[in-house]
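FIELD: query
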Amino acid sequence: MAAKIIPFPADARPAAQGAPRITDGGAAWSLIVELVHREHTPARSATVQPDASLADLHRILARLFSWDASHNYFFSYGSCRFEDPELFAGHDRLSAQCRKIYSAADVPVSAVLTHKTDALFYVYDLVNTWELRISRDHAVPLEQFG
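FIELD: result
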């Protein structure tokens, strides 16, 4: 009896990470950043290029909150987790893909915030747990009106 070979995709990452990148003509995106579970804290805004990696967004967020960026972090979107490259390095790549864990350095912002209603969650300092909710700003820039 001969065994049947079932082809397995070489890289399941693109399918697991969602829709393809959207660049809006290369314009920077304005993001709304809110602390989760903290009352009376105003939302902050940040600007990012859609093709910037989530690791780049981590550096922007660290500056925005005056953090020293010395702690590990991860982003979550749906059932996927995008980790600090140093934290991700401890995973076996195949098992990480099966658990939908990816390196934040390999994923652009536009791959997770494809729609203006999407929300991305970010956890910084895994001991003290600063959690942020990140979404795209729906406001229309004034320069569009001339």
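FIELD: remark
The beta strands are 29-35, 44-48, 73-77, 80-83, 101-103, 119-124, 130-136.
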